[in-house]
## 1
Amino acid sequence: MSDRGKLLNVGPKSTAWLRQVGIRTEGELRKAGAVGAFVKVKRAGFRPSLNLLYALEGALTGCHWQQVPTERRAQMLEDVEAAEAGLPPPRGRAAGFAQPPAPVSDVTEEFQAEMEAESGDEDADGRD
């Protein structure tokens, strides 16, 4: 961020992401808003956590990202979901072909089943 150097909560990785989506100054960040900037970063193919969203809001309001009020966080999440719902799928991905990752519980259950099957096989072979 070149308006006044470094913004509160915005580190080098976040600054690089913002720069790559065309947000180079504090003024440009203010114009985009925390939600707009966050959505731009996600749409560019980066994988930001929600901490970036809160950090950007904190930078714009002058508070630490952990001090962004719960009500404001909830509103920003709704705004992000609404903004993403109105956008076409990212380039290179046809609608309906992007598969969400399996829930952790499903993966854990599959892993446990595989481990039980392997341990059962060992017993059947007479090995310990």
Note: Residues 4 and 26 are 8 Å apart (CA to CA).
## 2
Amino acid sequence: MDTSNPAVFVNAELLRLYVGRRVRALIQVVRTEGGTVIGKSTDENQLVVKGSPPFPLTKFVEVIGIADGEKSIHADIWNNFGETIGMPFPPTFCKSYLIVFHSNYIIFNVQRLFCLDWEGGAESI
């Protein structure tokens, strides 16, 4: 693995903080328009990814490239993640917390961890 130029994991909301820098994102492909992919980020917001996507694209794709705008990435690496991704908890268990498992990757997207305990109460971590 090349560690000389690391890419920070971003979602659509965080992307604006890294314009001009190397980033990586996991997107759900919504549609393609030529060399442009319109996708939904892990925070449910839209991202535009430009570059040369592999064919065929799966429903979930990891992209690595340069953030060239507040909502767009020019990707030079595309990794198909498949048609589904797994979550260790039901989506309602933890709000704003996503762990995605795929092969040897564990992708964390933590904005604020807000979990329900087994008694029905809530706690913020």
Note: Helices lie at 12-15.
